[in-house]
Amino acid sequence: AGKSSNVVVTSPVDGMVIDVPVKVGFSVIESNNVNPGTTIAVVADMGDLIFQGQVDESEVGKIKAGMDLKIKIGALESEEFAGKLEYIAPKGKTVDGAIQFEIRAAIVKKPEVFIRAGYSANADVVLAEKKQVLAIREALINYEQVKGKDVGKDGHGPAFVEVETTPQTFVKREIKL
Q1: Which residues, in sequence order, are bridge partners of residue 56?
Q2: pTM of the entire structure?
Q3: What does the DSSP 8-state code read for residue 112?
């Protein structure tokens, strides 16, 4: 007959139990100087979420800690989360024949959305951003060679659009791209 005991185990951190790898009847070893012991529960602070991913060696030189990320979680496709890049591995690893560098970023949690540990996600690192910029469809931009004006390095003259000033009356307006 096996010997059993009632022992109260207290977690060293606040959080949610996300895994219990042992079942009733399993042998459990207490941690000591020689043995790490048996993990009986995995507890995580679900308010402190981390995005972990890889960046290709051709792109890693463009990023640095502190940059913003836009994170899309596969299971929550209608939501986009903000993140802040915290860590870039100093050494790359070969993954499927390419050198990849591990990155980690803190996810800014939305209180109304529950994120589970282990979700797969993709992130875009925001390299540069312009706010309050007017945008129009490229098809609406025309180029014209005008006497006395410099031709741009792309071979085009100044860019312009046609603006409707009154019904069916269009006026050319030069624009700066």
Answers
A1: 100
A2: 0.62
A3: T
